[in-house]
Design a protein that fits this description.
The protein has helices spanning 6-26, 29-35, 47-73, 78-100, 104-128, 130-134, 137-156. By secondary structure, the chain is mostly helical. It has a single domain, classed as Ferritin (Up-down Bundle), CATH 1.20.1260. Helix 1 (6-26) runs antiparallel to helix 3 (47-73) and helix 4 (78-100) runs antiparallel to helix 5. The longest helix is centred in the middle third of the chain and has 27 residues, at 47-73. The protein is elongated and about 55 Å long. It starts with 5 loop residues before the first helix and ends with a helix.
Amino acid sequence: MKKTSPIVSGFLLFFPLIIGSVPTLFLEIGDSYRSFEKPPFSPPGIVFPIVWTLLYLLMGISSFLIYKKCKEEKLSLLPALVPFYLQLLLNVFWTFLFFGLGAYLLGALWIFAMIAVILWMISRFRQIDRIAAVLQIPYLLWCCFAAYLSLGVYLLN
């Protein structure tokens, strides 16, 4: 079997990290976070870039595993790619809604929609590659925690 090119591999691995970093080019997220009244168990601001970097890298690894498995077994990528890119898009727009526009209620509701799409993505990934699906569990859990934080910020601010 033909190996995956390093360019394709690199793209798949780092694309989520690059896309997820876009809002930081336009928004002062740290300043906003420090200014909020926060609910109990809110982590210090330094935790977020570390966690998100790891989560985006796990997304990239999962997308690589899905791509590789679909290529090997001649499966269509579309059923896995639709929820993958949709959740990534929702993720990026959540940051602009919440931190850019200060739309805390909409942001809290938006993240619940994002969680639903993440569950859909995990379900699709599981049909193709179980490890790719399992690698998304930390992302799902973090987004559930982020939903709690978002709702807390809305209620307290």
